[in-house]
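Chapter summary example.
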Amino acid sequence: MSRRPTHPARSVTAAAAALAAVGALTAAAAPGPAHASAHPHPAARHVLLLSVDGLHQPDLAWYIARHPHSALAGLTAGGVQYTHAATTNPSDSFPGMIGQLTGGDPGTTGVYYDDTYSSALLPAGTTDCAGAKPGAEVDLTEDLDRNKDSLDAGQGLSGLPGSILQMTGDPARLIDPSKLPVDPTTCRPLYPHSYLRLNTVFDVVRTAGLRTAWSDKHAAYDILDGPSGNGIQDLFTPEINSKAIGYDAGDWTKDNAATEQYDGYKAQAVLNEIDGYDHSRTHKVGTPAVFGMNFQSVSTAQKLPTSDGLTGGYQAKGVPGPLVVKNLDFVDRQIGAFLAELRERHLADSTTVILSAKHGQSPTDPTALTRIDDGPLLDGLNAAWKAAHPGSRDLVAHAVDDDAMLIWLTDRSPAATGFAKDYLLARSGTGNDIDGKAKPFTASGLQALYAGADAARYFHARPGDSRVPDLVGVTQYGVVYTGGKGKIAEHGGAHADDLDVPLVVSGAAAPHGVRVDGPVHTTQIAPTILRLLGLDPQDLDAVRIEHTPALPVR
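The structure predicted for these 554 residues follows.
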């Protein structure tokens, strides 16, 4: 599998050239002037967007080759398959999904991960803003829920988990405002949708008077509502990291059968929406113009060493193991049910299905795994800084380390960022391999480390931006930062295993059986959705800023 460049791509044109060569499609040029309609007559009435988190393009190809009559094979044959699609860098769920629905990379959207830091905001709980010191964690995880142990995030439904479809479609009200960072200008908690710097597909579609729906894994996915705060009319967000009722392992991600059950609730919500109801099947509202969900079960199958008596991860480089295969079968059945329901409701000819993934998962070569506990590395950095600068506080303000290293510092000066870079690149130690045996590492497990202005340039962000990390580490292939031995893969990094995701556009307005081998980016999904619906991609802020072209689908 070829490696992607570590720096995020800005715009892509090779796919258009590939399509022109086969003569099957007309490549989509960059959108025209603002407010000029790209397609005055919509090519589709509905777009169903599906994200299979963790899925790699080689996984999809492997599965289709062995199951030529599967739903995934039929979906791919019925449309355009882009075999070299890349998700955002960092390859985390939040920037990945936001990229698909805004058209922008993290340097533009301002969202780098699900748990980050801003040097401009005030800590959660701040009430005296005039005297408060800026610098706050921005947590977009289950920690925001009123009750993160409950599948309904604290709504108080009885009869869980079976009653979860009765969960509200307005999860913002399930977010505890005392856990939100505070805007120093207004001195009020900043909700996720207000943290996003740019509008979303849902904002544009709602403004056009069309219906929207989405299903995801935390109430914090309120961020997809966009700055308007009301982009999604029906947002179903059962909490995936709550206690899994009926299972002993912990939350819904710790037992793969539990994750499948969890995904099943969201799949049922999509079926209800295809039938013209809201996610709970309570109100007849009409099939949304844009709707969909993310699947989590493939991702947990890639991460867990074992579950349900099956070995997780990959048997060899790029060869799915039995637990991953089981979950590919599961996802295939759910997608088959969606396609069958679209046909049953006579919507197949007016619906475009887009299949992709928020992120991949690394490593897919089990022999490459090196698990490193990042805690001692960060503790050592803080200790070294304070020893060299008596009276100083910890240098690390916040860090997120999965299979990348993102660090925000309390001192953002070149001297401090340079100190941190030198310290980390000089660290060696011992981690453990796929079998739990000792495995040495060098340079903190890093292949490259960008600091200060170089870190900002890595993301095409403005140096000194209040949200951009002060250090960005690209790991050596196979490195996963984790204590213990409970995880065999992660995402967030810049390797091909993190970035190479599937991308299929199938159904209404898509020619059949077209394969595009040129590079494309999942941020191109956003303008593509608007073009399919006859709306103007230029209404997306990120499209105007980054010149993100639509995918060539017609």
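To summarize the output: Residues 1-40 have pLDDT under 50 and may be disordered.
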